[in-house]
Amino acid sequence: MKTINQRIAEKLDVREAQVTAAVQLFDEGATVPFVARYRKEVTGGLTDTHLRLLHEQLGQLRELDERREVVLRTIQEQGKLTPELEASILEAETRTRIEDIYLPYRPKRTTKASVARDAGLEPLAMALLKDPTQSPEQLAVSFVDAGKGIADVAAALEGARHILSDVLSEDATLVGRIRESLWDEGVYQSRVVKGKEVEGEKFADYFDFAQPMKQLPSHRVLALLRGKALGILRLGLEHTRDLTSEVKKSFCESLISSHFSIRDQGRPGDPWLQETVRHTWRKKLKPHLDTDLTKRLVEKAEIEAVRVFSSNLRDLLLSPPAGMVPVMGLDPGLRTGVKAAVVDETGKIRKTGTLYPHPPHNRWQAAKKEIATLAEKYGVQLVAIGNGTASRETSRLVTELKSDRPELKITGVVVSEAGASVYSASEYASKELPELDVSLRGAASIARRLQDPLAELVKIDPKSIGVGQYQHDLAAQHLARSLDGVVEDAVNGVGVDVNTASAPLLERVSGLNATLAENIVAWRNKNGPFPNRNMLNKVPRLGARTFELAAGFLRIQNGDTPLDGSAVHPESYPVVERILKKTGMNLPQLIGNRDVLR
Q1: How confident is the model at residue 235 (pLDDT cuts 50, 70, 90)?
Q2: What is the pLDDT of residues 300-339, one digit of tens each?
Q3: Which residues have a Cβ under 8 Å from the Cβ of 24 and sit 6 or more positions away?
Q4: Quick check: 45 and 19 in contact, CB under 8 A?
Q5: What is the rounded distance in angstroms from the CA atom of residue 528 to the CA atom of residue 63?
Q6: Contact between residue 488 and residue 467 where contact means Cβ atoms under 8 Å apart
Q7: Does the N-terminal peptide bond of residue 360 adopt cis geometry, omega within 30 degrees of 0?
Q8: CB-side exposure of 342: number of CA atoms within 13 Å?
Q9: What is the DSSP string of 47-62?
Q10: Rounded distance between C-alpha atoms, residue 199 and residue 427, angstroms
Q11: Closest-CA residue to 548 (of 510, 576, 504)
């Protein structure tokens, strides 16, 4: 059995030694950004992308091995663990394979099969499977026992069928073979639930739909499942060969028969065995595999959807900032008006209000005049316009003003307002902008998003930013883990000014958490700006290990030490100072000078 590190190395196509080094750092508490930036020499140059995948794989494989140990221990306690069984469990590479092997040994509630076993019918079931030349009815006579609940031959044969059905459906090799055949050649179908045609009109494309399972794009999978959850669609899975074949027996039934050498050769026991195979497939295996493969399909769709969501979020977070300039934010609306907020170059609120240019109010000229007045008074040249309802009309208002008053030099920029309402009603917004009405906080957020998208968007739960497909249908834990990684990488990739950053922004810095972020802000408010990175050690609960993980990503501009404004980690200051002394250069000349640093 390969070790976890070996399996990860193979999957990522890197050396095992690199994985081992990274795993050790993670186990010691290091973060992905810290390892990617400051421990490249230890990991052999693994990138942040490699490290994210490695970290995720590490968690998954450790969970898999924990489950493997539980299964082995449970079977061992039952006294049924043979060397062959142990070897097959140790060799299993997926959770699905482990569960298939474990199925016959899993503790079960009382079933028809267990009742039949308790009544002594297992020998009958096995005899019928082993020798179909015998008559089932004649064999069953000797098993009739009213005292055990077996009233007649029919009851004995029914109990034997339940037992044999258990045996057939719990064969790990067979189950795996059918599962993969369905995955490779299965067709996913959907039909509208009778009477739901009008209510489910937006799912009309799926009222009579079929597509090979492996060809289903992620957005379609999530749409089908949404339709099912709403009671609009009925979903089903069929094997391709059953849709084109005239044979009454399904292809999966033939796989079961073949695996157990069950053939219809006109022998007395053959019809009973054929019916048992049919019962096994339709009542046990098909429902189980339908659920199992739908889960796999969903997991595949979620991986793709989360990838798209993460990519879109990364692009949004790393949008070029307008910088430290005054901005007017407009949160468009029709009946409720256009909310306006002017922020200065530091993001501080200077003025707020509501304009009513659109129907039913139609105060178009008054709105233009108010925007012009605010622009003149506060030196605003950039107007951030939310992209929601009435965005196009509001953009036309700003464009018209620009044409009427060219001396204002204003420019309208459409900004994503996704999540602005969530931020407005959040606890953090209440603390940050307590004097502002909830309806006006969105406009302030839109203005700040243009100034610095990253600094503003970290205040919002990534799921609420809404840059993905069916994000509310995705597994919350998987989505949150992925999006948190995107935000963490974005924040640490850019770096954070420790003297101006908000608590939500600081919270995303390597090694920090919500408590430490609040402590940094509290220390700053009480004592003034941090003059150098070493002063971070004065912050309550910020110990040496946290300082090591965070310091390189926390910048101090115009402080006591020029290097504190760079991405150079304090542990490397002596090296940089020796280079400066040897080359006679100053710091700006040295940073980014590859010829010298080589």
Answers
A1: very high
A2: 988 888 888 889 999 999 999 999 999 999 999 999 999 9
A3: none
A4: no
A5: 46
A6: no
A7: yes
A8: 18
A9: -HHHHHHHHHHHHHHH
A10: 37
A11: 510
| HSE-up of residue 109 (Cα within 13 Å, Cβ side) | 0
CB atoms within 10 A of CB 60: 13
Amino acid identity of 266?
G
Contact 494, 566 (CB under 8 A): no
Of 176, 327, 226, 419, the closest CA to residue 428 belongs to 419
Residue with tokens 């493997």: 68
3-state secondary structure of 290: helix
**Residue 80 phi, psi dihedral angles, 5° rounding:** -115, 10
328 three-state secondary structure = strand
Burial 292-305 (b: 16+ CB within 10 A, else e): bbbeebbebbbeeb
Domains of the chain (ranges, CATH numbers): 4-80 (1.10.10.650), 112-306 (1.10.3500.10), 327-451 (3.30.420.140), 495-597 (1.10.150.310)
Q: Residue 435 in 3-state DSSP?
A: coil
Output the pLDDT for position 490. 96
Residues in the chain: 598
In angstroms, the CA 210 to CA 70 distance is: 40
What three-state secondary structure class fits 362? coil
Residue 103 exposed, middle or buried by CB count within 10 Å (0-12, 13-18, 19+) = middle
> What pLDDT does 468 receive?
56
Amino acid letter, residue 226: R
Q: Which residue type does 206 have?
A: Y
Two structure tokens written together for 425: 């009603």
DSSP assignment letter at 207? T
